[in-house]
Design goal:
Helix content is about 60%, strand content about 0%. The protein is mainly α.
Amino acid sequence: MPHLTSTDIAGRIEDLYGAPLADLEAHAQDQPPGMLSALLGMHDTLALAERSIDFHRDHLARLLHPDRQIGPHEVSHLLDGTRRLAEAVAVREAQATSVAAVLQSLTRAPAPTSASPTPSPPAPAAPLAAQSATHSR
């Protein structure tokens, strides 16, 4: 499965529901929890993980700058930053894989067309024949 970003996921959610993400978020707040709110929550977690990856990557790059000395104090920061970066990557991969699988399993329902005839109600059942008073032997 290709790597999907939160932007890709947002686009897929918008395509599925036929509305911009901001409108969908506003709509989901007024509804009971369902698939839309689950997808939006997964998207938010994915976007947060991506921001966390960017932050920790930049922090590690500052710590590892060629003009900077690495002493015992910096080593603990490097290890912590590396651990946090790995955690953020793991969250991103898990969320991206899960939400992509859910979105792949869903399809957009076709919009009803006004030209399509409405189904006619079923014909009433035929009356049952009255049972005879004599029993067959």
